[in-house]
Amino acid sequence: GEFAVAIDRFGRVIELDPANGEARLNLGLAFERAGRAAEARDALLAALTVPHLAPPARAAANAGLAAAYLR
User: Fold this and answer.
1) DSSP single-letter state for residue 42
2) Count of other CB atoms within 10 angstroms of residue 29
3) What DSSP state is assigned to residue 61?
4) SS3 state of residue 69
5) Long-range contacts made by residues 8-16, C-beta under 8 angstroms, separation at least 24?
6) Angstrom distances, CA of residue 60 to CA of 1, 16, 21, 33
7) Distance (Å, rounded) from C-alpha 15 to C-alpha 37?
8) How many CA atoms lie within 13 A of 46 on its CB side?
9) What phi and psi values does residue 52 have, to the nearest 5 degrees?
10) How would you write the pLDDT of the chain (71 residues) with one tens digit per residue?
11) Tally of CB atoms within 10 A around 44
């Protein structure tokens, strides 16, 4: 479905630009919404390691992590 397409596309962006925190964030959120909690946690934790990730994106990553851990 839609999440599989999003996961594929964000994965491709990360292959081209591993430091893209927004792509890592969106990949993690797509994994979380697809019910793939372990992969969501990995992607969201990776997003949080990107130093230039904007504060609203950090907040979204933390919220996504909480949801993934609650699954």
Assistant:
1) H
2) 23
3) H
4) helix
5) none
6) 23, 23, 12, 13
7) 21
8) 20
9) -95, 15
10) 799 999 999 999 999 999 999 999 999 999 999 999 999 999 999 999 999 999 999 999 999 999 999 98
11) 26
- Helical spans, DSSP H, in the chain: 2-16, 21-33, 37-48, 55-70
Task: Report pTM.
Answer: 0.93
For residue 24, give the amino acid letter: R
Q: At 11, which amino acid appears?
A: G
Structure-block tokens of residue 63? 């919220």
- CA–chain centroid gap for 71, Å, is 16
Structure-block tokens of residue 42: 């990995």
Which tokens hold the place of 19? 């430091």
- The answer to whether 13 touches 21, Cβ cutoff 8 Å, is no
**Per the structure block, which two tokens stand in for 34?**
């697809």
